[in-house]
Amino acid sequence: MPSFPADADALALTLAAIAHGAGARILESRAQGFATRTKDDGSPCSDADIAAETFISGALARAFPHVRVISEESADAAAPLGEGQAFFLVDPLDGTRDFVAGGSEFTVNIAAVVAGRPIAGVIHTPADGRFWIGGAAAYATTAPAGGPPPARHNLRPIRTRPASREGLTALASARHGDPETDRFLAALAPRERRSASSALKFCLIAAGEADVYPRFGRTMQWDVAAGDALVSAAGGLVTTPDGVRLTYGDTTGGFANGPFIAWGDPALARDAAPIAAAGRRP
């Protein structure tokens, strides 16, 4: 069965280099002008999404010719995955609405998954050239489009922070609220609640700038896997509200996730477990 190299940091850097190339193509699409269509689920898809996916799929196929690629814009054609199979989960442009509106908080997300768990991942913001990279450990760096991709010697280690129940910072989606998330946050009573777009919320948790990111609304596996790899490598957890680590590769729901919570401090995840479970009940 195809597998990945043992050096998770090297694997993550390879994914970062591919995300760097995809980001350049997204910016080229913005500069040249792009068309947008509405998918069956009501979400937008732009020419930039397709250009980034085409680049990523080709680059992954060349680097890992025997490993499956599951990507947002082509997932409908994906055959079921075998048990324990290694594969990639790709969101070529997370935050398309923000991109189309002229914003800057869109990302490229790529994760490598083995036996249902992400072992390496990258989140890249093409607009400002930032990268958050999760492998054996977690790192941040900057590599603007048009220059070289991220290099190991430029990586800055990042870690999640210990949580204080009296001083929690919670993150919520800037565009996708839901009653269960609101109930959870009301019960958790964080000192500060911040909004952020796309996968950047995982990056803030991993970098020790926030403590918890709950999402009880619907997401897809490619939205979350790279962030899970990053937060886990930085010392945190991404779990269901019942405290179980997320797994990836189940195709029965069309690659949909259930509710999840990203925790910077595993101790907070244990202490707040009753609140997380209660958030699912009206």
Strand content: 25-35%
Question: Can you give the mean pLDDT?
Answer: 90
Rough shape? globular
Low-confidence stretches: none
Q: What is the subunit organization of this protein?
A: single chain
Order of helices and strands: HEEHEEHEEEEEEHEHEEHEEEHH
**Main structural class:** alpha+beta
Share of helical residues: 25-40%
Core attributes:
282 residues, alpha+beta, three-stranded antiparallel β-sheet, 8 helices, 16 strands, 32% helix
Topology:
Blueprint (H helix, E strand, L loop, with lengths): L7 H25 L3 E3 L5 E3 H17 L4 E4 L15 E8 L1 H5 L6 E8 L2 E9 L4 E5 L3 E5 L13 E3 L10 E5 L5 H10 L3 E5 L3 H7 L5 E4 L3 E2 H13 L3 E3 L16 E2 L2 E4 L2 H6 L1 H6 L4
Parallel strand pairs: 3-4, 10-11
Antiparallel strand pairs: 1-2, 4-5, 5-6, 6-7, 7-8, 8-9, 12-16, 13-15, 14-16
Helix pairs in contact: 1-2, 5-6
Write structural notes for this entry.
By secondary structure, this protein is of the alpha+beta class. It has 8 helices and 16 strands. The chain has helices spanning 8-32, 47-63, 96-100, 179-188, 200-206, 221-233, 266-271, 273-278; strands spanning 36-38, 44-46, 68-71, 87-94, 107-114, 117-125, 130-134, 138-142, 156-158, 169-173, 192-196, 212-215, 219-220, 237-239, 256-257, 260-263. A 7-stranded mixed sheet has the order 3-4-5-6-7-8-9, with helices on both faces. Strands 12-16-14 form a 3-stranded antiparallel sheet, with helices on both faces. It has a two-stranded antiparallel sheet with strand order 1-2. A hairpin with a 4-residue loop joins strand 6 (117-125) and strand 7 (130-134). Helix 1 runs antiparallel to helix 2 (47-63) and helix 5 (200-206) runs parallel beside helix 6 (221-233). It is globular. The N and C termini lie far apart (45 Å). 48% of the residues are buried.
